[in-house]
Amino acid sequence: MPPVTSIFLFCFITSFFSLISATLNLTLPHQQPFPESVVQDVQRRVNESIARRQILETTVRDSSNKCLTGNPIDDCWQCDSNWAKNRQRLADCAIGFGQGAMGGKNGQIYVVTDSSDRDTVNPTPGTLRHAVVQEEPLWIVFAADMVIKLKHELIVNSYKTIDGRGANVHITGGGCITLQYVSNVIIHNVHIYNCVPSGNTNIRSSPTHVGYRGKSDGDGISIFGSRNIWVDHCALSHCTDGLIDAIMGSTAITISNSYFSHHDDVMLLGHDDKYLPDSGMQVTIAFNHFGEGLVQRMPRIRRGYVHVVNNDFTEWQMYAIGGSASPTINSQGNRYTAPDDPNLKEVTKREDTDTGKWNDWNWRSDGDVMVNGAFFVPSGQGISTQYVKAYSVDPKSALLIDQLTKNAGVLGGPRDNSMSMSSKGGITGGGGGHAESTSGDVDMFGMIFSGTGASSAGSSPSPTTTPILLSFLIILTLYIITKQGGQLSIPLFLLL
User: Fold this and answer.
1) Quick one: pLDDT band at residue 420, thresholds 50, 70, 90?
2) Domains along the chain?
3) 63, 223 in Cβ contact below 8 A?
4) Which of the four, 182, 333, 441, 446, has the lowest number of CB atoms within 10 Å?
5) pTM over 0.85
């Protein structure tokens, strides 16, 4: 067979198997088939909590009652005055797409007593790194206030809760938190800031596995091929790359009650426009405060379905919500406050796409309040069928946004990171060094950890399996072509 023909065949086979692989993974194993029902459930729970607040205000007349928040997540656990004796109640309080995140529920309490991070291969018992790599479900708490300066990425195993309530916990340094091919992780009530790239070293991901990691991006929280993740009441700022990135087929995620500030590329959802499995990504973003010093990506979405509900957007320097590759964006009951610059009033931004291509993208604004000239550019053919159920319960007015987000950030102290970093020796400058055109590519040459906990038996195989199999088939095809003098004869079962 002529060399040109062999090269053509090689390219065809590569493209064919890549297309088949992507198509087969369009529906993720834990993707919610009816996302609008999740949206409706969120609104129902907000309505119930607001109604309960109004009743208590009328009958009890006690404005100090913590059950008067109207925030269904906080009301779920804060109404119990003895919550500290039943910390794991928190696992029942998530809403939205990440509400199935169990964290370390039903596992033992692990108390972090040592703030050091000296050894990434053999972590010291009592440290956060030692806790998060264990196989069994663990509910991780902290014995005292502490600043944990990581040497490298903190690789978190499945079925873990990092619960900072009752202590002033800061996580900073190299990495920082990486969730890769894991499930059921809750990160609650911690400061995360000044995260920088690190790596090119060995890092333990479980009691039985150590792997070589390439250089990390410097995300605050990196979610890679993971599911059932809940980030709540955290304060994130000043990281090198994203504050929270969720990519490579991650889904079933809720990001709530958190305080974002002082950063450029705030949140990326979706790996690449061409990465089809991210079409199954589903994320709820609720009751967060997007504050001072933010530039863009709150979030920036590729494919998938994102419900942005009852958040307070107080600043942006480019745009608030952007996307590409036809993501579904359902914006309900948010407050968008535009900057004074007359050229920056638009909330939305479609990336690298002309109007003719994004006209049918499903971007909706319902019950949002626009301040200082802010405007949201919707798209799609009217109210599509998939929104009918969601709209059957009207979103609560964004006039209640002050009440719903007043406790966003870390509880029990400064809710953002400004005072924390000045007193802990952190940086005070702006964050994020990447232009908007960056694709969020990931170093794929580092060791990929499975990191599944004991309770995650039966989970999907590692995404590395498909590329390895395809490479084997391609090499085998070229070998047969060469040996048989250009006559291609491959058993059918090898192509299936």
Assistant:
1) low
2) 95-352+380-405 (2.160.20.10)
3) no
4) 441
5) no
